From TrEMBL:
Residues 152-172, 269-305, 436-458 are annotated as: Disordered. PANTHER family: HYPOXIA-INDUCIBLE FACTOR 1 ALPHA INHIBITOR-RELATED (PTHR12461), JMJC DOMAIN-CONTAINING PROTEIN (PTHR12461:SF94). Residues 292-511 form the JmjC domain. InterPro entries: Cupin_8, JmjC_dom. It comes from the Eukaryota. It comes from Rhodotorula toruloides (strain NP11). Residues 284-305 have a biased composition (Polar residues). Keywords: Coiled coil. The lineage of its organism: Eukaryota, Fungi, Dikarya, Basidiomycota, Pucciniomycotina. This is Jumonji domain containing protein. Residues 88-119 form a coiled coil.
Amino acid sequence: MKDKLKEELAGVLAELRVGSTDLAPCGPGVSHLLPRSFAALSDPFPASTTTAASLAATLLRLADEKLNSYPYKDVPLCWRRLYTDAVLLGALARLQQVEKEIEERKKELSKTVRELDLAIVIAGAPGEGREDMVLRLISVVQAELASLVHSVESDNDDRPSKRRRLSFSARPASSLPPPYIHRPLAELPSLPSFLLLDPIPSHRVPFIVRKAALDWPAVETWSSLDYLRRVAGEGRVVPVEVGGDYTKEGWGQRMLEFEEFLRSLEEVEWNSQEDGEERPYPTPASTDDGSPEVSSTSEDRGTPSSRQILYLAQHSLFRQFPSLLRDVPIPDLVYSSPSTDGTGESYEPPATEDGYILNAWFGPGGTKSAAHTDPWWNCYVQVVGSKWLWVAPPSCSPYMSAFGTAPPSTACSDTTNSLPSEVGGSAPAEQYMTNTSSLDVTVPPPRSSNSPCADEYDAKKPSPYPLAFAEHVEPHARQAVLEAGDVLVMPPRWWHAMYGLERSFSVSMWF
């Protein structure tokens, strides 16, 4: 082992010893095993690293069992900390075990990167310096992995040709048309540094600033999947949603290699181009009141149904890949600490060290976030691609048919007198999604200023919505399409839904 690597591993081990007493609440068993792990890792004999790896695996299994025995928000801190420290100890042990066949070593190192990622994603890597240690060891492991991969490729003269890689385009041929735009969302000419809620009424409602983030480095760099590959490196894993809509049956979550996720995005676009799919972006028409309108049926939208949609949604990706933060200048507005929610009610920002929560949203066309509410102000930046947006004010809450609430009694048409079967939701949905509507707001309603069934344009069609929704929500709902570089500012508790029109990358900042 090279001297520089030895120094790096010894430094991480020394830092791990500091604060190990914080794990005392985990019980005497952990207090007994931890010193043995440290001693084994400090022993120069090869057999000791095997012992250290075994002890780390025992501690990790114990921590994992404890994490799975509580609702996540109730997991005691000591068990999340033990999970993190056990992963770090296991990584140190494996890095000291070098007498292995190349393929076996590659598998072992890939497993190590995965476990280190899970320490951030699942446990949160709590404890002084722990997250930094995890990222440092990921870099060390990836460097060895890269050297092994290079050596194997150099010895293999019959390598298969590389898979064709695609990059985002401004609007690829597979772009989906937006569901409809009946009443466009308000737009402001520039992004304010502070929310002046009393003198400026437009700051109290959702608004869009077009191209406000167009100068972000991310708008250009994140359009390249190869750039994202280089940032991530070998073996990284991320949590993805399986299925385009988390309110529907069959939706799930799983950990996936980041490379596999990127390949799935490439294949979606590659397959659509191979099949000759063309979904032209519609030109806004004119409504009776002169506002732009884009409308299509659910069939016209071409939502992918024959393939599995993978969506990296509401994930703190920047903790795993902190170098991406260089591409994202946080707007001054996010640091403005608003004192009210826009209605005059007192307001508390997220209780984080920075005062905001930064999440990534990355997926193909056809991804859908059902209409829901969030408790904080949101500065939402569409970095790459485009999304359709639907919003409605908090006053609409009684008519949104949220999971776990009684649905409105009647629909607009006598032929549609009940809600779809999924509206009631399952028991878990009723318990955990009370801030989420069971109605699919992407379905175009008839265009009428009075009743959803009164307009000649769609007079013969039954409304897809309950009468209460048609009367109390539709007149107040607004829609828009967010393009690359656009910024949306959303007050707390406003209902909003998103629909991906193409492969897109977005960043949300709750503040």
